[in-house]
Amino acid sequence: CYRKHSFPPGVKTQAKNGHPNVNSTLTEEGKKDSDQTQKGEEQEFRLTAQQYHSLIALMQQSQFGGSSSPQINQISSSMSTSVQPSNDHISSSLSHFFTYSLIKPIAVKLPNGDHVYATHSGVIKFSDQFVLSNVLYIPNFTFNLISISKLVSSLHCILTFLPNSCFI
To answer: Where is the composition biased (Polar residues) (predicted)?
Structure first.
């Protein structure tokens, strides 16, 4: 990958034959420009700056979090140190619920370390075919979250995400 997109500054490299790579130059834009060395290789794949930074952030999150999937919230039945990952849907408004009931408060640990409590659980109905059950109500939560893993397993469906849309 570095051979295609250039090595970090200060890294000395050698070509595949063991001799220093002397046929590379930098263009005005700072991109690596090689003579004839990439003939026959796969087509070059380029990332935008935003895609690159998103990928780096995702890799750092994975490296430091010890998980390959981002964790937006964590949940436990008490404020103990054994907090388990949550696969629950979360809503910040009771007006979203079709039906709901009061539950024993459940502590939810936010990414910033704060704890909030889910006080109700219920059903949110988007249509007759699209119903979310056991949705937690957290009144002072900023977002409404749908757990993708819980959604596809409960509705037995496939989700496809595109840059500006999502298909169920």
So the answer is: 14-27
**pLDDT surpasses 90 at 101:** yes
pLDDT one-digit tens code per residue, 40-59: 444 444 656 666 666 666 66
Do 96 and 22 lie in a common domain? no
66 lies in a domain? no
Does residue 43 fall inside a structural domain? no
Range of the domain at 30: 1-38
Choice between 98 and 10, residue whose per-residue pLDDT is larger = 98
Cβ–Cβ under 8 Å, residues 13 and 24: no
Same-domain status, 33 and 78: no
Query: From CA 34, how far away is CA 54, in angstroms rounded?
Result: 27
> Domain tally for the chain?
2
